[in-house]
Amino acid sequence: MLGFTSNLLKPRRPLSFFHDLTSKMLMSQSTSIPKKQERVRDHGFDNYMEIEKKNRKVLKFQSLIISQPSQTLPTSRFDSLARRLGLGFKENEAAAYLLKFPHVFEIYEHPVLRILFCRLTRKALLQMEQEKEALNAQIPDAVTRLRKLLMMSNTGRLRLEHIRIARKEFGLPDDFEFSVILKYPEFFRLFDARETRNKYIEIVERDPKLAVCAIENVREREYREKGLDAEDTRFSFIVNFPPGFKIGKYYRIAVWKWQRVPYWSPYEDVSGYDLRSLEAQKRMEKRAVATIHELLSLTVEKKISLERIAHFRMAMNLPKKLKDFLLQHQGIFYVSTRGNYGKLHTVFLREAYRKGELIEPNDLYFARRKLGELILLSSRKAKVDKDLVSYRRDREVDDIVCVRPDYMENNYEDFRDEDEIEHEEKGKDGFISDILSDNIDENEVMDEKEDTV
Q1: Residues with Cβ < 8 Å from 20, sequence gap 6 or more?
Q2: What is the DSSP code string of 129-196?
Q3: Cβ neighbours for 278, distance < 8 A, ≥ 6 positions apart
Q4: pLDDT (tens digit, 9 = 90+) per residue, 403-433?
Q5: For residue 304, what pLDDT is reported?
Q6: Residue 48 belongs to what H/E stretch?
Q7: CA angle, residues 149, 155, 157, in degrees to nearest 5
């Protein structure tokens, strides 16, 4: 009796407390899939990125050599240039690193200066020429990709700098501002914003024929080939969880419910909708998944770094904590931290790959993979002289072995088909550290600045 009386005498909690509790419960139910998910590694994608790490280093050395008027460079200069690029080489290691890839770099003795120089091999030059030809051949497709990318933005415009940073992923040439934007004035408009003094690309007219997502074509194919239920496939995505991902009974039910949730298309204008209701929040969350899915589908290799997706966050209504959001949908996307000492996050579209290879490759993908093939070729397969000439350390030249220029095979027909300038911005667009939500410091974003040289 005394306990009952004491409970009556306790001060009652205000109604605002129960209102806040109810609102928190509703917000936690904005999606049926649990938000806190641990990342499960997929070694197929991680191994892919390990090769990409070597590709990036080789590409930076290639750009240094090609930028020279004679397309040759003394090996003694690579140490200072590597430190400027921040490649992490110790003293006298950069030039020796080139010897690991004899099918890409050729070390020879200058006939006049009598010091070691480096130039690209015939196979490396042919690979670069093939990639350039493939890039120019698919410019009409790149124009379509850029039009669809602009149509997904809220205002139909994107910053020129953001497109320039991601130009390689979308198959745009380095001079795309002139060869694509200004060449097709019926599709694009280039202008300067007075308030921010930034250049923007704007689409001239939206084409309803282009407002079809790649996932819609996949759904139609799945429905016709497999004869699945129309209600289950109407708003569903292809889900393939990585090996070792634990799928419980209730999680499977949650995914099934989420697959049936309707959503607005990434190409649809949602500015006139009331987004405060719980149903609207569910649709917007699933729309964000569809937007990232379509963004990856527009890329050449169906992958792009998370830091570059962050540049389109405001224009495409993407969530602030992108990494947590992507980890919530590991069956659709895979986030790899390999390839750049954990400082670069690469997002893959899982359904586009099988066993580390692109299911529907293109000529540009093949040309880029050939560089990886040259890098992976063992140095034992190169025709090198048994007696490598050693040089004593001079004032300007370090101890490096010399490889004669005739060690490379001239035949390129037996080469099998396999697989920047970048400036990360600060200021108004310095929200990347907020997007990568698991304690990513500024060094991880600044790491992509290596391509600015």
Answers
A1: none
A2: HHHHHHHHHTHHHHHHHHHHHHHTSSSSEEEHHHHHHTTTTTT--TTHIIIIITT-TTTEEEEE-TTT
A3: 26, 29, 30
A4: 333 333 333 333 333 333 344 444 444 444 4
A5: 95
A6: helix 43-66
A7: 50
For residue 179, the tally of other CB atoms under 10 A from its CB is: 15
pLDDT band at 200 (very low <50, low <70, confident <90, very high): very high
Which residues, 6+ apart, have CB-to-CB distance to 75 below 8 Å? Answer: 95, 98, 107, 115, 116, 117, 118, 397, 398, 400
Closest CA to 451 of 168, 75, 219, 111: 168
What's the DSSP call for residue 415?
A: P
Which token pair is 267? 């190409």
- Domain covering 68-130+369-407 assigned CATH 1.10.10 in the classification: yes
Pairing of strands 303-305, 188-192: unpaired
Q: What is the tens place of the pLDDT at every residue in 228-278?
A: 777 778 899 999 998 888 888 888 899 999 999 999 999 998 888 888 888
Boundaries of every domain in the chain: 68-130+369-407, 139-208, 213-357
Considering the domain 139-208, what is its CATH architecture? Orthogonal Bundle (1.10)
Please report the pLDDT score of residue 32 as a whole number. Answer: 60
Identify the DSSP state of 81.
H
How is residue 352 written in tokens? 């586009």
Asked whether 331 and 241 are in contact (CB, 8 A), the reply is yes
Indicate the pairing of strand 157-159 with strand 105-109: unpaired
